[in-house]
Specification:
Blueprint lengths: L10 H6 L7 E15 L14 E12 L4 E14 L2 E17 L3 H30 L12 H16 L9
Antiparallel strand pairs: 1-4, 2-3, 3-4
């Protein structure tokens, strides 16, 4: 039985033959982009008995890198201070190279600013813990982060600001 070919490709046959037109996104590589560890008051800070106040700041950025590629950068700044001064300061820029194909803009944005940071955070967390330990302090174990909820909160705040509304609550 011969099949007529009208120039249209049957998607089932194309998929079986290895066509790759479905959406896909993946972390291809991870790396430390920049890191700074400061122990400005050593060795005195190692004798302080006061528990330091820990301040942790996160920032997520993304930039296109070639066709179908993006770099996602998770910046984490940790400062530990007491009344006597700064015990330590760690600044980490941990990045991932992300490949995406056939993903619409809305889903791509969510992947780059919520899912990719969620995937790379455990690795950045370990690097931070090791850096604090190597500075002579007990390892800093950051709690897991819900990047999806943070992403949705920031999206809602942005939409409220564009609509001229005042945001309610704290994020």
């Amino acid at each position: 039985m011969a099949e007529e070919n009208d120039g249209n490709v049957n998607p089932d046959i194309a998929a079986a033959n290895g066509s790759d037109n479905g959406p896909s996104a993946a972390v291809l590589n991870q790396y430390v982009k920049d890191m700074s560890v400061e122990n400005p008051n050593a060795p005195e800070s190692h004798q302080w008995e006061e528990q330091p106040q820990i301040d942790v700041q996160f920032n997520i950025g993304s930039r296109a890198f070639g066709e179908d590629m993006h770099e996602v950068e998770l910046k984490i700044n940790v400062t530990a201070k007491t009344e006597k001064g700064t015990a330590f300061l760690v600044e980490l820029a941990y990045a991932a190279l992300v490949g995406m194909r056939n993903v619409d803009d809305e889903q791509a944005h969510a992947f780059l600013f919520a899912e990719a940071p969620r995937m790379i955070f455990p690795f950045a967390r370990r690097i931070l813990a090791d850096a604090v330990r190597d500075a002579g302090f007990p390892p800093l174990m950051l709690e897991p982060m819900d990047f999806n909820t943070l992403y949705l909160q920031q999206l809602a705040q942005k939409q409220a600001a564009e609509a001229g509304e005042q945001p309610t609550g704290n994020a």
